[in-house]
């Protein structure tokens, strides 16, 4: 899309009778592949679940979705979410795709041995992970499959000078406007907040730009 946009500014790039066709259609021209929903087992959840977690595997679902990648092409990714939120998650990510909001990757945190920091450092959008809130004995809403972190490297958590992930320092500047960042009032933020989800970017301390939750 970037090359197409640039050509729109250059008269020498204007289409002519001998112009070659686009190598790839734009996302708006490609309807997203339908989402699929599957049950998950403790084995499939791997290191993201263990006995004593606040939800059982039977309460979770794997939702496989189409998202726009940073290469401007459609990709398939998956989120593990609470069964009660499946329809909302499908609707939200369908809207993000049609808004052409890019997501770098979308994988279970099991691919990172359940390590939230590694998942964030890799800019991986994820949902379920049975973990506690750092510095607290309370379960994170991720442990219930009721929270999603979107492009976490680009949208870090900031708390009195401390931030996560560790490699996100450049993105503490929230005046940055490149694709994939989230700002107050953005259409991508409203995809969630209009549907009743809370955005951590509106919090005072910590401010968690990546985080959306639905209780």
Automatic annotation (TrEMBL):
Superkingdom of this entry's organism? Bacteria
User: Could you tell me which InterPro entries the record lists for this protein?
Assistant: Peptidase_M15C, Zn_M74/Hedgehog-like
Protein source organism:
Mycolicibacter minnesotensis
Q: Which SUPFAM superfamilies match?
A: Hedgehog/DD-peptidase (SSF55166)
Q: What is this protein called?
A: Peptidase M15
> What GO molecular function annotation could you give as one example from this UniProt entry?
peptidase activity
């Amino acid at each position: 899309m970037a090359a197409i946009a640039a050509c729109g500014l250059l008269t020498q790039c204007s289409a002519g009778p001998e112009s070659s066709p686009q190598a790839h259609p734009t996302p708006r021209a490609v309807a997203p592949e339908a989402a699929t929903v599957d049950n998950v087992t403790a084995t499939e959840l791997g290191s993201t679940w263990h006995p004593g977690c606040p939800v059982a595997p039977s309460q979770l679902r794997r939702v496989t979705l189409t998202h726009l990648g940073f290469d401007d092409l459609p990709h398939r990714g998956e989120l593990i979410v609470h069964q009660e939120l499946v329809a909302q998650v499908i609707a939200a990510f369908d809207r993000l795709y049609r808004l052409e909001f890019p997501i770098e990757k979308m994988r279970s945190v099991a691919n990172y041995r359940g390590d939230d920091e590694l998942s964030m450092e890799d800019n991986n959008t994820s949902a379920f992970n049975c973990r506690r809130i750092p510095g607290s004995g309370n379960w994170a809403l991720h442990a219930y499959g009721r929270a999603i972190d979107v492009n976490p490297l680009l949208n870090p958590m900031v708390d009195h000078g401390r931030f996560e992930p560790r490699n996100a320092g450049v993105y503490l500047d929230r005046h940055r406007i490149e694709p994939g960042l989230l700002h107050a009032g953005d259409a991508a933020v409203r995809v969630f907040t209009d549907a009743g989800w809370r955005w951590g970017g509106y919090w005072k301390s910590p401010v968690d730009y990546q985080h959306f939750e639905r209780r």
